[in-house]
């Protein structure tokens, strides 16, 4: 028989971190949307800024930062004694329009990135516990992604980004974060090699985030617990911490089956178990409830990938991970 304990209580008892990404626009309604806030603080012991700290939303103009949404999420996490994950200091997507139009030199870009990281990571130095410093530096074929950062600084941009974050947030854990690295595949191998090179060069990196968007188009993020566990283990063996940072579980239109929510529940449970059994202690879902998922209004996937339904009722996936933690308490 299951207890009345919440997911958060069971996570705390197990020294496990269970978190959720919060989209800026839904959180801005707080406290007019008390359900989101109540669910978050009752059920999760970690919180992630899903969009608010990306360069695009954060910097409406080159010299103007708008920290309102990010402050709201970060402060909510601090006030409610949650682990706060900052996402993300450097990503090639969701950059501002003015940035894309700016004709910078390599040196100007380097100075710009340094200032950005110093400003953002510095502002939250005593509030953000974990930073996704660099997001998605490796392309799908395993080559280094030819981003603006890579073109200006070469692979050393990662070294510099982690150093700059470490300058101003020495107590935060600094992560590299990417998708399709949940199992042994060419991209995961390339990320493994990149992390090895960073460590060999003495870069201050603490961990790797496995995004885990489990969708039909991301085949390597749908593999079984043995493959996922073995891959977590090899990253751990590099000496890095590993977290599952952006999990959601969706299906394609051809995959509609009657017990889809049970299948989803089992997959969440399998991934959490693979994580815990292999030395990873954190699972973050990319949103709280189905009405807030980034997968709304898409034709190619189901739009109910999270632990709570559109009315914040717990789903079988919630019960599945709660039961797993209870069985380990
Ligand atoms: C990537 C990014 C996230 C988010 C998701 C879904 O995984 O890291 O910030 O944008 O895509 O949109």
Automatic annotation (TrEMBL):
Keywords: Carbohydrate metabolism, Glycosidase, Hydrolase, Polysaccharide degradation, Signal, Xylan degradation. It comes from the Archaea. The keyword Hydrolase applies. Residues 1-324 form the GH10 domain. GO terms for biological process: xylan catabolic process. The keyword Hydrolase applies. Signal peptide: none annotated. Its EC number is 3.2.1.8. One of its GO terms (molecular function) is endo-1,4-beta-xylanase activity. It is an enzyme of class 3 (hydrolase). It catalyses: Endohydrolysis of (1->4)-beta-D-xylosidic linkages in xylans. Gene3D superfamilies: Glycosidases. Coiled coil: none annotated. Belongs to the glycosyl hydrolase 10 (cellulase F) family. This is endo-1,4-beta-xylanase.
């Amino acid at each position: 028989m299951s207890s009345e304990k919440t997911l958060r209580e069971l996570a705390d008892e197990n020294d496990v971190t269970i978190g959720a990404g919060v989209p800026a626009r839904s959180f801005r309604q707080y406290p007019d949307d008390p359900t989101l806030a109540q669910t978050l603080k009752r059920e999760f012991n970690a919180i992630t800024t899903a969009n608010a700290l990306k360069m695009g939303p954060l910097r409406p103009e080159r010299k103007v930062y708008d920290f309102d949404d990010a402050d709201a999420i970060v402060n909510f996490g601090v006030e409610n004694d949650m682990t706060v994950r900052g996402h993300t200091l450097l990503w090639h997507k969701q950059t501002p329009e003015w940035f894309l139009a700016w004709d910078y030199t390599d040196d100007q870009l380097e100075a710009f990135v340094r200032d950005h990281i110093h400003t953002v990571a510095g502002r939250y130095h005593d509030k953000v516990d974990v930073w996704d410093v660099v997001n998605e530096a490796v392309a799908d074929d395993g080559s280094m992604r030819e981003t603006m950062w890579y073109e200006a600084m070469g692979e050393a941009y990662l070294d510099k980004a982690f150093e700059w974050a470490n300058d101003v947030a020495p107590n935060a854990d600094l992560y590299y974060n990417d998708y399709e690295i949940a199992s042994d595949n060419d991209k995961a191998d390339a990320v493994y090699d990149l992390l090895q090179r960073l460590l060999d060069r003495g870069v201050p990196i603490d961990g790797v985030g496995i995004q885990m968007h489990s969708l039909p188009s991301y085949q390597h993020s749908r593999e079984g617990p043995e493959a996922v566990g073995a891959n977590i283990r090899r990253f751990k063996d590099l000496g890095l911490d590993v977290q599952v940072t952006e999990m959601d579980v969706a299906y394609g239109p051809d995959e509609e089956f009657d017990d889809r929510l049970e299948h989803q529940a089992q997959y969440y449970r399998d991934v959490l178990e693979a994580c815990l059994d292999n030395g990873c202690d954190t699972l973050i879902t990319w949103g709280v409830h189905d009405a807030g998922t980034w997968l709304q209004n898409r034709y190619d996937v189901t739009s109910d990938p999270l632990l709570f339904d559109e009315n914040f009722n717990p789903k079988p996936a919630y019960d599945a991970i709660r039961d797993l933690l209870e069985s380990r308490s």
